[in-house]
Amino acid sequence: MCGIVGYTGGREVCPILVDGLRRLEYRGYDSAGVAILSDERIEVCKATGKLSVLESVLIDNSPNGVLGIGHTRWATHGRPSDENAHPHSDCTGSIVVVHNGIIENYLPLKTQLIANGHKFVSETDTEVIAHLVEEAYQGDLAEAVRSTVLRLEGSFALAVICREQPDLIVAARRHSPLVVGLGENENFIASDVPAFLPYTKKVYFIDDDTLAIVKKSGVELRSLDGDPISKDVFEVTWNADMAERGGYEHFMLKEIHEQPTALRETMRGRLSSETADVTLEGLGLSHEDILKLNKIVMIACGTAYHAAMVGKYMIEGLVRIPVELDVASELRYRDPIIDNNTLALVISQSGETADTLAGMREAKRRGAKVLAITNVVGSSVAREADGVLYTYAGPEIAVASTKAYTTQLMVLSLVSLYLSRVRGTISTERDAQLRRALWYIPEQADLFLSEYQDIIGCADRYHNFAGFLYMGRGPNLASALEGALKIKEIAYIHAEGYAAGEMKHGPIAMIDPSMATVAIATKGRTYEKVLSNMQEVKARLGEIIAIASTHDTEIHSLADKVIHVPETEEMLSPILNALPLQLLAYYVAKFRGHEIDQPRNLAKSVTVE
Ligand code: F6R
What's the CA gap between 304 and 403, in Å, rounded? Predict the structure, then answer.
């Protein structure tokens, strides 16, 4: 996830671009850059690190001009560096591009462009766009961008400027956000509305496969066939602070709602609906390595540890390799049995958690190969692992992890599928079932998030309860633990997650009218068992909130409140079950009047042991 901005009008452009980037910095801060059309040249200025680094470079060296584009980067292809920072130029410096997204076919395009004589200076996927536009340009930038976009696969919101057309920004979008701000004799493009809110509240929300031809005097929208598109102007009513959160009251809520997109992005290019291929670029394991594996040791903390619990269930079920699971802070103190045929699977959103890093180094020291699942390119975990699979969730700002968790589950599903194919432990039929189910997960998440009024009612009813018990079985034991963690960390209510079968071995003694039980009871192998466990709670007059599959009516007789989620394969159900648990915690915390995005005593990245 990155942020892009652009401006054309009568004012000095550099401060407008920097101001816009400041408002988009939440989208990534690995590097930043601007390109400004100045005296018939395009001046590019960029710097690694936060926007403040670029600002200090610009203090003595700010190019003058009235048209320009800018970018704040969250690295995906290529480490954070000056060369990889945007904007990127063609061979002559006449065509300059900023881009947010991932160009999946950039490698074949790059090979072709190099064969045609183009010179590349970065490791990014974006740079191919500048060279493709250069090849296509014959005096009409809009046409050159249009024909370039037709060759791109993947996701993009991009903006292109050209030295020969000094009053023009051409922008395009597919699957990455792009908005156009409409001013008086000035116009803007950006990834998100806050970038230009101080100047205009009139907005076009650009649809996929649309081209925006932006001039000082006006904006024209075209389809990729070149046909004109008319669109209503939307007048935003948010203030700048709200808008940074996309109109949501908190980043946590925004991030909960970003999950369908984050899941799609994480699946994109890895699971093909047409060819049935599973492609895990960056895995760092040959088929031979995979066939030799005798054990997988999973290392993670907190929410990432809960993802690992689901991962164990998936891998053992599909790949039939024994999986050991360790909270990272415990691994190094228990003398684990690890050898050259062990795979250490390390999960960390930030890639900087000290305990996880220490556990990973210990596993490596003992001979394990390390595969990391992380959200942050260039993080320590990513740099030190033998292979890395990224969760393309975009920056997670709220301390309570949401979209990182569900995208970690998505990657784990893909890894399980891939390993089981290589080891021949999955039937063709099961493989097809799982692929189909995975493919629908983002859509099902979208469907669930479109309507959840019942959760708000539930949070209202239970927010003053003294405690919550969460119970689940199989892969949803992890859901129970994750649900309890969420409510503890933001609502500050004592909560415990339990294997539902364990309730009668102790925790059921705590059931009283001030204790709510959340039963994760979606359809699966142990559904009937969970119903029995709910009976046991009900018999002691406990209040029950059930998370149940969409068409389950039977459960209403056992639960005081039922939250329905779309049905999927049991193994994948923790992905969808996470959504109501996150929302329940969010609204309970909200009813209790807590600070949600930065809960007390916690930090986003825990870099101390
Ligand atoms: C809970 C939460 C934490 C993190 C944990 C590990 O909502 O965010 O429990 O999951 O601190 O962090 P990462 O994944 O960055 O290693």
Answer: 11
